[in-house]
C-alpha cells in the first residue's frame, strides 16, 4: 500500500489480517530500503510477506536484492515465472529476459524446482506460467 518508511511500522501493526507484497518490478535503492524495513516489521508482527522477484536474474542488482531479502528475513510466498524462480533458486539457466518466462522444463522439472526452493527457504513457491 505504501513505500514510505514512516508508514511501514504502523501498517505492519494493523490488527486486521493483511500481507505485504515485495514486488521488485521497479526496484530502486530507496525501494530496497523500504522493502528491507517492511521485511523486518512484518516478520516481527507475524503478517505474511509475498515476494514477487520480477526479472530476478536480469541484473546483478536484482539478484543481490533477492539474496539480501532472503538473508535478512522470512517470506511466506515466492511467486514468479520459471526464469525468476530459477534465478532465486540459483539454478542454471535462470537468466531472465524481464517479465517473460523462459520456456524450459517439463512439469516434473518445475515441481523439483519449486520443492527445492521451498525446502531451502521454507515458503510456498508459486510458479506461474
Describe the fold and architecture.
- The protein has 129 residues and is of the alpha/beta class.
- The chain has a single domain, classed as UDP-N-acetylmuramoyl-L-alanine:D-glutamate ligase, CATH 3.40.1190.20.
- Helix content is 45%, strand content 12%.
- It contains five helices and four strands; from the N terminus they run H-E-H-E-H-E-H-H-E.
- It has a four-stranded parallel beta sheet with strand order 1-2-3-4.
- The radius of gyration is 14 Å and the shape is globular.
Inertia-based shape: globular
Backbone structural class: alpha/beta
Q: Strand arrangement, largest sheet?
A: 1-2-3-4
What is the name of the CATH topology? UDP-N-acetylmuramoyl-L-alanine:D-glutamate ligase
CATH class: Alpha Beta
Count of DSSP helices?
5
Descriptive keywords:
alpha/beta; UDP-N-acetylmuramoyl-L-alanine:D-glutamate ligase; 5 helices; 129 residues; 4-stranded parallel beta sheet
Short characterization:
45% of the residues lie in helices and 12% in strands. With 129 residues, the chain is an alpha/beta fold.
Present the secondary structure layout.
Blueprint: H1 8-12, E1 20-23, H2 29-45, E2 49-52, H3 60-72, E3 77-80, H4 82-89, H5 107-121, E4 124-127
Parallel strand pairs: 1-2, 2-3, 3-4
Helix pairs in contact: 2-3, 4-5
Amino acid at each position: 500500500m505504501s513505500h514510505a518508511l514512516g508508514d511501514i511500522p504502523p501498517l505492519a501493526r494493523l490488527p486486521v489480517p493483511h500481507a505485504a507484497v515485495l514486488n521488485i518490478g521497479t526496484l530502486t535503492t530507496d525501494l530496497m530500503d523500504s522493502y528491507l524495513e517492511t521485511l523486518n516489521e512484518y516478520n516481527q508482527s507475524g503478517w505474511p510477506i509475498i515476494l514477487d522477484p520480477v526479472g530476478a536474474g536480469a541484473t546483478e542488482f536484482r539478484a543481490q536484492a533477492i539474496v539480501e531479502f532472503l538473508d535478512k528475513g522470512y517470506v511466506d510466498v515466492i511467486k514468479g515465472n520459471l526464469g525468476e524462480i530459477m534465478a532465486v533458486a540459483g539454478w542454471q539457466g535462470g537468466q531472465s529476459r524481464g517479465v517473460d518466462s523462459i520456456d524450459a522444463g517439463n512439469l516434473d522439472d518445475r515441481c523439483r524446482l519449486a520443492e527445492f526452493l521451498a525446502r531451502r527457504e521454507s515458503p510456498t513457491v508459486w510458479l506461474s506460467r
